[in-house]
Design brief:
9 helices; 232 residues; three-stranded antiparallel sheet; 22% strand; alpha+beta; 10 strands; Arc Repressor Mutant, subunit A; Jelly Rolls
Length: 232
């Protein structure tokens, strides 16, 4: 199982040996809330074939996506420092498989292994870079470029060009209304870059989609590789 999550793969056999008795492969479904905002975290999650959206929430109940996590990372990284209360909400964007580990065991193994702490710290830096770049992208770039960037990120983190995604959720993650996401999907499909199906988007021209995406995609992926090596 560990080989299907890049973060676990780079940890090395000594740390995996400590974590393995507490690993459980689970299936998560679209819309599942793994952690609520300001809630106690019982488990950490290492996605294998799922995408998790990290959402910031206001007191009025509004949310905005700050980052996405797939097979390159983990949800619940603060547990390694003994911080068991989440700040943001973690919701399943694309259903699939993940490895679940109790946060208490993440903390226990983290206390024993400096290597584990270092890898998690590097991942947190990559997530911070993603969040910062996504904020700039949201403020500065056109919606078509942002949509292309977001789809490329999902594809890379899933390891698949077939993304199970509802139109409503796609629009919510981009922060646009349904009419806008309708127009964006139609533009990308008419250009031969994606194929829109019921509850899914298939990327049919990665190179072409990359040309439409803003440079935020390359900046986010390059930072991850600088910290943790190539994802593939």
């Amino acid at each position: 199982m560990a080989s299907e999550n890049h973060l676990l793969r780079v940890l090395g056999p000594a740390v995996i040996k400590l974590l393995k008795p507490h690993m459980k492969a689970i299936t998560v479904e679209h819309g599942d809330v793994l952690h609520g905002a300001s809630s106690e975290m019982e488990f950490a999650y290492f996605p294998m074939s799922t995408i998790i959206s990290v959402l910031a929430r206001t007191d009025e109940g509004q949310t905005a996506e700050t980052s996405i996590v797939g097979r390159e990372g983990m949800i619940g990284s603060s547990a390694i420092h003994g911080i068991m209360t989440s700040f943001a909400e973690a919701i399943v964007q694309v259903g699939g498989e993940a490895i679940r580990i109790p946060t208490s065991e993440v903390h226990r193994v983290g206390r024993k292994s400096e290597g584990f702490r270092k890898i998690v710290a590097l991942f947190d830096l990559s997530l911070l870079a993603q969040s910062q770049q996504s904020t700039a992208c949201q403020a500065l770039h056109q919606v078509e470029s942002r949509a292309a960037r977001w789809l490329l990120q999902c594809s890379r983190r899933l390891g698949s060009n077939d993304i199970r995604l509802t139109q409503d959720f796609f629009g919510q993650m981009l922060g646009v209304q349904r009419t806008t996401i309708n127009a964006v999907e139609r533009t990308l499909q008419d250009a031969g870059l994606v194929k829109i199906g019921r509850g899914r988007i298939a990327i049919v021209d990665l190179k072409g989609l990359h040309a439409v995406a803003c440079d935020c995609y390359d900046r986010i992926e390059r930072r991850y590789e600088e910290l943790l090596g190539p994802l593939d």
